[in-house]
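User: Can you help me understand a structure? I only have the sequence.
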Amino acid sequence: MKILLMILISFTTLFAQDVKEELKALKNSSESLDHRLDVLEKKIDDVIWFQRVGDVAFIDKVFLTGPPLWKEKNPTGQGAGNPVKFWSYIFIPKGIDYSQKYPVIVFPHGGVHANFSTYYTHIIRELIYQKYIVVAAEYRGSTGYGKSFYEKIDYGGLEIEDVNASRQFVLENYDFADKDRVGIIGWSHGGLIALMNVFEHPENYKVCFAGVPVSDLIARMGYKDDSYRALYSADYHIGQTADENVNEYRRRSPAWNAEKLKTPLLIHTNTNDEDVNVLEVEHLIKSLKAAGKKFEYEIFKDMPGGHSFDRLDTKAARQIRIKIYGFLDKYLDPPVKIKRLEDINKAAYLP
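Assistant: Let's start by predicting it. Here is the structure, written out as tokens:
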């Protein structure tokens, strides 16, 4: 009986190990499929960009470099320490006078892992209408470029330098880009990147708009669930939770860097935001005030759209964007101004 029991236990253990290995293989296969589908989706969306914006802008996608990885898997391996390569979109208004200088908007996308998709179509058309040159970096960790690039994510870290490198690329390669009229805008994670860029490189930007910006990663880890927190504590990312290394999360949070602000800044947030809880942005606002900084902000009360309230195509959202463009105008002086709904409608629908 003992021998039979031992055989049964051994068989059960081996079976459990086999099942565990098969489940691991299935998970890896599923993740690989997800990344391949992301690549396909990105290629399709690139085609749609030309369909939706090609009538008003020249669109290019350039390949450039940012700093090396902040954390190498194999520090002594081949290629360790090489710059990270990434893509950036460039949108240039058609019909501009190339002997003149035009203002530049640096526009990082949002999402922990996401990309600059045609979700932003109308905003790009509105910027192009004003004769802005727009650069949108697909910074490290963006989706649509495979698993390896996805796992290069450095949220609140060197992604900031990727975005700044995209600004430098435009100034070095287009003589008609005005180095003295560069602004940066972003929503959500893109708002965090915009803020951290002006904190770290105030000499490079004349103005900043941050919409519903992720502002305090420590607070954020407190109200998000385990699956969200795992995106940050993953081995290929920070590799630790906020309670294991609170200073690392603070280093990556705008609210804990507010004393660095030197750039004209406008912040928007919404009390019913279902993604970036208003308490994060309130912490940023209070930190900026405590540091004696001059800036502008508006806390919208339960605006329809929640996290996306001023990025929608509704009349109310467009009216808010007119206010945003008016703030940018003061520092970038674009050749064409959007002042009324009639202007913003022309930008959306007319070539």
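Now, to help you interpret it: The chain has one domain: 41-216+253-349. DSSP finds eleven helices and eight strands in the chain. Let me know which part you'd like to focus on.
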